[in-house]
C-alpha cells in the first residue's frame, strides 16, 4: 500500500511536482502553514460578516447580474448550496477520471493560500475524495472559462454536499451512497464557500496540466522516432550541427539539434556517403520546426505553473490587509490563450511528422515504394499515410482559436468570456491525435529501417527499434494494418523513457 504523502503548502506548485504526485500515487495532506492560513481566513471572514453593514458580492448578495440583490443572514448557507446545485449544468462527455483527480488536487492547492474564506473541513473533504479515489462525475461542456469553470466545478463540488454522482472502486454511484459507505457526513457550506468552490480555473488548468505531463513524457520518444526516421531515410546529420542554431539564437532549435545529433551518435547509417546534397524540410528543418514548438510549450508550462500556484476564485479575501475584493481572478484568458498556443505547437509537431511519413513511402533514397518488397501486388504502407494526413487535417481544424471568441452571459454582467474550457478539451483532442500520428511515423520508420540492413543505426535508436519490434512485427505482405497501427499507438501510450 502506498504511504508516500505530498504535503500541500501555500507555495508555488510546479508541473514537475505534480508529475511526482501522480506518478508515485502519493496521498495528499495539508501542511500546518496551509491549515493555519485557511483557518485564519475563515475566522477573519466570520468576524467581518458580524460587523459588515454593506453588502459584499457573493457573500451576502446574489450572483452575476443578481449582484445587487442582498441576502439575509439566515439564508447565507442556503445561498451557497443553491449556487452549487443551480450551476451544475454540465453536459456532453464525462471528463476523464484522471483529469477529475487533477481538478481536485488543483482546487485544494488554490484554497490552501488562505484567500478564499472556506472552512478547513471543506478542504479536508476534497483531500479525502482525492486520497480515496472518490471522483465526481464532471462533464466536458458548460464552462465559458470566465466566471471560473462554473459548471464543471459545480459538478466537482456537488458530491461533498451528498449530491451528484461519483466513481468509486470502479463503479458510478450516487454520492450520498458513497458518503454513507465511508461514514462521512455531507459538508454544510458556510457563507462564500460555494463561490470559492465554483469560481476558479481548475477545469482548464487540470487539462493544461495533463497535456504538459503527457508532452513531457512523449518528448524523448518523439525525438527518438525522429532520429529513427532520419536514419531510415538516409538523411544527413550536418543540419543538426551547433553552428547554424547558435547563429539563430532560438533555444528550442539548438536543444532539438543537439538531442537528435546525440541520439544518432555511433550510427553506421548516418556516416555513410550521401549522394544527395540536401534533405527535404521535414528532415532538414526538424530543429527549426520542433524547436519552435518546444519553446512554445515551455512558455505554456510557465504560464500554467503560475496558474496552478494562484488564487483564482472571487471575491478574494485578504485578512492582513482587512480587504475583501471582488475582482476577476477567475477569468480564464491566461489559460485560454495558452491552451490555443499549446494546440498549435502540438499540431505542428504532428504535421511535420506526417510529412516524414510521406517521404518514407515515396520510393526514393533506395527504399521501395510504400515500404514493401513487392509493390503493386501489395499496397504496403500506402494508406497509413492517408490516415496520418486525415488526423493532421483534423488537428488543423481544431486549432481555430477558442480564446478569440466571447458571448455575453448573465444579462451582460459577464460580457467578455475566455472560452478557455473549449480550448482545453480541443487541446486534449489534439494531443491524443498527435500520439496517433507519431505512432504511424514509428510504424513507417521501423519498416523502412528493415530495408537498411545489415547497416545499423545508433545504440539508442536500435534500442527503440528492438523494443518496438517486440510489440509490432515487420510487414512482409499486405495485412490488416489497423491492428498493427493500434499496437503502435499502444506502444506510444505506454512508453516511458
Please characterize this protein's 3D structure.
With 497 residues, the protein is mainly alpha-helical. It is built from 19 helices and nine strands. A three-stranded antiparallel beta sheet has the order 4-6-7. A two-stranded parallel sheet has the order 1-2. A two-stranded antiparallel ribbon has the order 3-5. Strand 1 (5-8), helix 1 and strand 2 (27-30) form a beta-alpha-beta unit. The two termini are 25 Å apart.
Tags for this model:
497 residues; mainly alpha
Strand residues, percent: 5-15%
Q: Please report the distance between the alpha carbons of the first and last residues.
A: 25 Å
Q: Helix content range of the residues, please?
A: 40-55%
Number of helices: 19
Sheet of most strands: 3 strands, antiparallel
Shape: elongated
Number of beta-strand segments: 9
* Class based on secondary structure composition and strand pairing: mainly alpha
Strand order within the widest beta sheet: 4-6-7
User: Strand-and-helix sequence, N→C?
Assistant: EHEHHEHHEEHEEHHHHHHHHEEHHHHH
Amino acid at each position: 500500500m502506498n504511504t508516500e504523502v505530498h504535503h500541500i503548502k501555500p507555495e508555488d506548485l510546479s508541473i514537475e511536482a505534480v508529475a511526482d504526485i501522480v506518478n508515485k500515487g502519493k496521498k495528499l495532506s495539508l501542511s500546518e502553514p496551509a491549515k493555519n492560513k485557511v483557518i485564519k481566513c475563515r475566522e477573519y471572514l466570520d468576524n467581518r460578516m458580524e460587523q459588515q453593514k454593506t453588502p459584499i458580492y457573493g457573500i451576502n448578495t446574489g450572483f452575476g447580474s443578481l449582484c445587487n440583490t442582498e441576502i439575509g443572514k439566515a439564508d447565507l448557507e442556503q445561498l451557497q448550496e443553491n449556487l452549487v446545485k443551480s450551476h451544475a449544468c454540465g453536459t456532453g462527455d464525462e471528463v476523464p477520471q484522471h483529469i477529475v483527480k487533477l481538478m481536485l488536487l488543483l482546487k485544494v492547492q488554490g484554497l490552501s493560500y488562505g484567500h478564499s474564506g472556506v472552512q478547513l473541513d471543506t478542504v479536508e473533504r476534497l483531500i479525502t475524495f482525492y486520497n480515496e479515489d472518490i471522483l465526481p462525475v464532471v462533464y466536458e461542456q458548460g464552462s465559458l472559462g470566465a466566471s471560473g469553470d462554473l459548471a464543471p466545478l459545480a459538478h466537482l463540488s456537488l458530491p461533498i454536499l451528498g449530491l451528484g454522482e461519483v466513481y468509486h472502486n470502479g463503479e458510478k454511484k450516487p454520492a450520498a451512497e458513497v458518503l454513507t459507505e465511508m461514514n462521512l457526513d455531507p459538508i454544510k457550506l458556510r457563507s462564500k464557500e460555494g463561490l470559492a468552490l465554483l469560481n476558479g480555473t481548475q477545469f482548464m488548468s487540470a487539462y493544461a496540466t495533463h497535456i504538459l505531463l503527457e508532452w513531457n513524457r512523449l518528448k524523448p520518444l518523439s525525438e527518438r522516432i525522429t532520429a529513427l526516421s532520419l536514419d531510415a531515410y538516409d538523411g544527413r546529420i550536418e543540419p543538426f550541427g551547433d553552428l547554424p542554431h547558435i547563429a539563430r539564437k532560438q533555444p528550442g532549435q539548438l536543444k532539438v539539434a543537439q538531442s537528435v545529433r546525440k541520439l544518432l551518435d555511433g550510427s553506421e547509417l548516418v556516416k555513410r556517403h550521401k549522394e544527395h546534397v540536401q534533405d527535404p524540410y521535414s528532415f532538414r528543418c526538424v530543429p527549426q520546426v520542433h524547436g519552435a514548438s518546444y519553446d512554445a510549450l515551455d512558455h505554456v508550462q510557465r504560464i500554467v505553473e503560475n496558474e496552478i500556484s494562484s488564487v483564482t476564485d472571487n471575491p478574494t479575501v485578504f485578512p492582513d490587509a482587512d480587504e475583501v475584493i471582488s475582482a476577476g481572478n477567475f477569468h480564464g484568458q491566461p489559460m485560454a490563450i495558452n491552451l490555443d498556443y499549446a494546440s498549435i505547437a502540438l499540431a505542428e509537431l504532428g504535421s511535420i511528422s506526417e510529412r516524414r511519413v510521406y517521404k518514407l513511402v515515396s520510393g526514393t533514397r533506395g527504399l521501395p515504394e510504400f515500404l514493401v518488397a513487392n509493390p503493386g501486388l501489395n499496397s504496403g504502407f500506402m494508406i497509413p499515410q492517408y490516415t496520418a494526413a486525415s488526423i493532421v487535417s483534423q488537428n488543423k481544424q481544431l486549432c481555430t482559436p477558442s480564446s478569440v471568441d466571447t458571448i455575453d452571459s448573465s444579462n451582460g454582467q459577464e460580457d467578455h468570456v475566455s472560452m478557455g474550457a473549449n480550448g482545453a478539451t480541443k487541446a486534449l483532442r489534439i494531443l491524443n491525435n498527435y500520439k496517433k500520428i507519431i505512432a504511424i511515423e514509428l510504424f513507417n520508420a521501423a519498416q523502412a529501417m528493415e530495408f537498411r540492413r545489415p547497416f545499423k543505426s545508433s545504440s539508442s535508436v536500435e534500442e527503440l527499434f528492438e523494443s518496438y519490434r517486440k510489440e509490432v512485427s515487420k510487414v512482409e505482405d499486405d495485412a490488416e494494418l489497423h491492428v498493427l497501427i493500434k499496437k503502435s499507438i499502444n506502444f506510444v501510450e505506454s512508453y516511458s523513457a
